[in-house]
Structures are given as structure tokens and as C-alpha cells.
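Structure request: Adenylosuccinate lyase family protein, Halomonas binhaiensis.
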Amino acid sequence: MSAALLQHPFMSQHAVSESNAQAMIRAMLAFELALADVQQARGAVPEGVSQQLRQVLEAHDFDAEAIAAGIATGGNAAIPFVKQARGALPADIKRYFHQGATSQDVVDSALMLLVKPRLSAVDQLLLRCRAAAIELMRDHEQTVMVGRTLMQQALPITFGVKVAHWAIGLEQARRRLAAVELPVQFGGAVGVHSGWDEQGLAFMDALAERLELDTAVLPWHTDRQPIHALGTAIDAVAGAAEKLALDVALLTQTEIGEVAEPSAPGMGESSSMPHKRNPVRCALIRGAARQVHGQASVLLNAVAQPLERGLGEWHAEWAPLIDSLLLLEGALEQTVVLLEGLEVNPAAMQRNLAVTGGGIMAEPVSRILTPALGVDAAKRISAEAAESARLSGKSYADVLASHPEVLGKVDHQALLQATDPAGYVGTSREQVRRAMEWLMGNAA
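Returned structure:
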């Protein structure tokens, strides 16, 4: 499989370039050097050794291919990495490198260091989504459109309230992801800092501070709640973006045409049909999100790990965790472009409101007719008049007013009001204002 053709197009290209093998090596090295620093500060490493380790290893050219090959025998990247690092060190300081750590400490902490900038990038993209959504909500608070249930026309809403629901979903997921902790991992061979007594927890806390990661209550070698929380929060953002993309894609259908993706040279073109403008951004968002959902299932199924070290479950987490973030960042890059440049067509929304000849307003019309005609007759006449209006091209109100069972029994002005979609949008406008207040109140 060619990742460049089949996988990377759904990902953030910038994120892919920042999450390669060398980045993982740098993250593992950052953990090891920070560990030496905190141990030296507490007398467990002789003065000056930490600086010697840093000087040698930061200048060392690690062989990523050899480390990758070593995973087949060691089971993780830390083992061949530590071997290479020790091989580069002078004999008198080798023993101070990786002191008290186990390979899982290195890999888990390195992954947290890789994840951190990706979460920051995701947060910035979500803030841009929020700003663009607020602008759309302002512009279309009064724009009436068809509300659809089970893929069929139901009752009127406003486009503003539709965007509000997209924005709320994205913001709720953003806040959930922002609250996730990225804890340092340091427990040694079986997670109890063997050989270090009470110093072990002090090392762990100092290491978290040094690496600017969260402090763990205890080492979490087989307590995978941090990964579960992170994976599900990533998936929640992907789900919110996918919902938006699905709605937009449905509204771009030729027969509906209520919105369109931002135009760009070659964007959305077909290999065989020159007339097409495919919702490619929506497809990329949904394609990435579907993959994130799959990656999340791997993380969820790896939560229960045996005894003091996972046997395959831990190993299964690594790629899905990083890939899901790269996919999410890619999806959000497309979502930002979509929201910031979305083309909205209010005229098409008005046209679609009239497709049923006014039948979309049969419910309020029935309510107006019921006091004079009774429930059964009101429902029947409202439906008959809608079909007649659709076939004849006359207005729904006029057809109703001339219906023999309605004539003279219901005020024509009341019928005009009852058949106006703009007068039957419920709390759409109030919901937009309430959503904007909530979103802007969380603008910090």
C-alpha cells in the first residue's frame, strides 16, 4: 500500500511531516535527557553527567532504520533506541543513561510529547471553525429553509440554527479534548520505581514538570485510562466534523443546491463528467472521520491490559493514536476551509420551501382550520389544498381560501400567516442567539 496515495491525503500534511520517525526519536531522547536532569538535581546522577549526556546525544545521528529493524526483536522502539544511545556514550557515563526507566516509560512519554503539539494545532483549527460558524450564524439567523427528518421535508427552520448545531457540536468536542490530560510515564520495570524507594515518585513528578506534561497519580503502565480518554475525545471531534460534512454534502445535491463548497481550480472535478462539482472536501472530512472511528475502536479494545505490562494491547495503541490525530487535523483543515468559504444559496432554500406547494405548512394550517372544521376535516383539507396548490401553481393560501369547506369560515389573513414558512420556525432565531452567547462566552 502506498501511504502517500491512499492514507496521507486524508491527513494534515504538515502534521505528517512533524510526526515522522525522527520526531519519535527526538521525543524519546527528550524523555531520557529530562530524566537525567531531574536525577542529577536530586543527587542520583553525578554533577555534570546530565550535560555530558545531552552534549553527546543531541549531536548523535541516530539510525532510524536500524531502530525500526530492532523493534522486531525487542518489541518496541525504546529498546533499540537505548542500545544506540548507550553505544554512542563514553564508557564512564553509560550507566547513568535510562537509569530506573523501562521501555514503556520511554515510549508512552514520547507519545505524549508527540501528541501535545498536535492537540494545540487541532485546538487552533477548532477556534477558526467556531469563528467562521459564528459569522454564518449572524448572516443567516433569519434565512428560512426546509428542516428535514428521515431525509424528507418536515417543517421550516433557519439556516442559522443549522449552523448553530454544527458549531455547538464542534465546540463541545473541543472543550472535551482540551480537558484531556497528557501524563508523563515513569515507573520502572513493574511500575513501582524498583530500587529507588521514595525517590521514584519525586523523579516522576519532576519529570512531568520538566517535560511540561501532566503529573500522573501513579505510573499507568496497564491503567490505560489516559489513552481511552484521549482516543474518545479525538473521536468526538471527528464525529462533530463528520456531522457537518454530511449535512453540507446532502445540501449540495444538484436537486437541492442550498449550499456549495468553496470553489477552487480543479476542486471537485470528475474524471469523466465535466459538469460535476463534487463535494470533495466533505468526502475528505468524512473519509478521515471514518478512519478515526476505526482507530478509536482499537484504542477502546486495548484498555484492559494484563498484570504489569500489556502483551500486544499496548503495542496496538501506538499507530492508531498518532494516525487518528493526523487524520483529525487533516479533517479539520478541510472543515475550516469549508466553513470560512461556504457558499449559501437563500434563493434555493426559498425554492425548496415551495416544492410541496405549501404542504410543508400543512401542520400550522391544520391548527388554524381545526376550531372551525374539526380535527379530521382540517387534516384532510390541509393536505388536499397543498396537493392542489402544487399541481396548479396557485398559492397555498388562495387554494385554501377558495376550498368549499373553508370558504367564509376562516379569515384569509390568518391563512396567509399560517402558510408563511417564516412565521413557523419556532425558536430557531432564539436558539441562534443563545448559541452565539454560549460560544462567545467560551471564547477564551
